[in-house]
Amino acid sequence: MTTPVRTGGDMDALRRRYALRHLAARCGVYGAAVLAALVCALPFLWSLVSAFKQNRDLYNPQSNPFAFNEPATPDHVTFLFTDTPFLTFVGNTLLVGALVVAVTLLLALPAAYSLARLDRPWGTPMGIAIFMVYLVPPSLLFLSLTRVVVTLGLEDSLWSMVVVYPTITVPVSVWLLIGFLKAVPKDVEEQAMVDGYSRIGAFLRAVLPLLFPGVVAVVVFSFTLTASEFVYALAFVSASPEMVVSTGVPTQLVRGDVFFWQSLQAATVLTAVPIAFVFNLFLDRFVTGFTMGAVKT
User: Fold this and answer.
1) pTM of the predicted model, to two decimals?
2) For 60-97, how does the pLDDT look when each residue is reduced to its tens digit (9 = 90+)?
3) What is the pLDDT of residue 98?
4) For this UniProt entry, which segments traverse the membrane (predicted)?
5) Model confidence pLDDT, tens digit, residues 29-56
6) 62 phi-psi bin (left φ>0, alpha ψ -120 to 50, beta other)
């Protein structure tokens, strides 16, 4: 059987066919990505448009929810800043989030290092037990944590959330950092110890810089969970000056059967967009931290 000989014209046609197929595939991928991005962005777009709508525009069922059928107004956004302590809620959220992140790192880093590096027979069971704590529903821990808060005299105080939230963030952070530490060769710290560093010094100077993606993942996870948590924030803090965004905004903008809907949407956008922006700045390191923890654990 003879193999057909392709001429130069046939090869050019074949190259064009492959190029068109490759172009069509890339257009399909980018088109699907753009469609997915639009679907994900629609809630934010709807909230942003709703925040500047007039009441008669918002309540008219014939109006397009994604367009201004009446002239836009900033009155509802102004109401959020002038008639509610929204900035106080934001400040409280940032303070609690920063403190919880600091406590989480302070507890999770040495715990993960000891479980990953100190070869003890109880290391793996202890790591699993720590992670299982995260799976316990908050409703089961509520009573015991209430007793802790009352005993410490932290009712209606931001410090109650600083004490309670690490019970949620630390277990997952330890599990994540254990997986990431297992991806760092032991030779790195052993060489540092040969050069004269103690174990703590070797960890701080040689291992910790390599853990930066995992630390970023812990910081982002802990802060976002703290900013979005609702049950404990509502149960332990009832004083308005001590509330965070997750409880203060609905408390101030939902009064009986009256919903300040446009102001609620404005608060949603003003809270979510900065967090999403910062999250995207560290997205690569965040994904690296989680995937390394998932593969190596």
Assistant:
1) 0.78
2) 878 777 788 888 888 888 998 988 899 999 999 999 99
3) 93
4) 23-46, 94-116, 128-150, 162-181, 202-225, 259-283
5) 888 888 888 888 888 888 888 889 888 8
6) alpha
Are the CB atoms for 264 and 191 separated by under 8 Å?
A: no
The C-alpha atoms of residue 143 and residue 104 are separated, in whole angstroms, by: 22
Chain mean position to CA 286: 10
Please report, for the chain, the start and end positions of each structural domain, with discontinuous segments joined by +: 8-73, 81-296
Contact (CB, 8 A) for 192 and 205:
yes
pLDDT for 151-164, tens place per residue? 888 888 889 999 99
Superfamily of domain 81-296: MetI-like (1.10.3720.10)
Residue 146 CB coordination number (10 Å):
16
Average pLDDT for the chain: 81
Burial of 185 (0-12, 13-18, 19+ CB in 10 A): exposed
**Dist. CA 182–CA 293, nearest whole Å:** 8
Strand partners, 258: 255
Q: What is the DSSP string of 188-219?
A: HHHHHHHTT--HHHHIIIIIGGGGHHHHHHHH
Left if phi > 0, otherwise alpha if psi is -120 to 50, otherwise beta: which for 84?
A: beta
CA 52/CA 269 separation, integer angstroms? 12
CB–CB of 189/206 below 8 Å? yes
Question: In the beta sheet, which residues pair with residue 254?
Answer: 259
Q: How far apart, in whole angstroms, are the C-alpha atoms of residue 187 and residue 193?
A: 10
297 Cβ contact list (under 8 Å, min separation 6): 175, 178, 179, 182
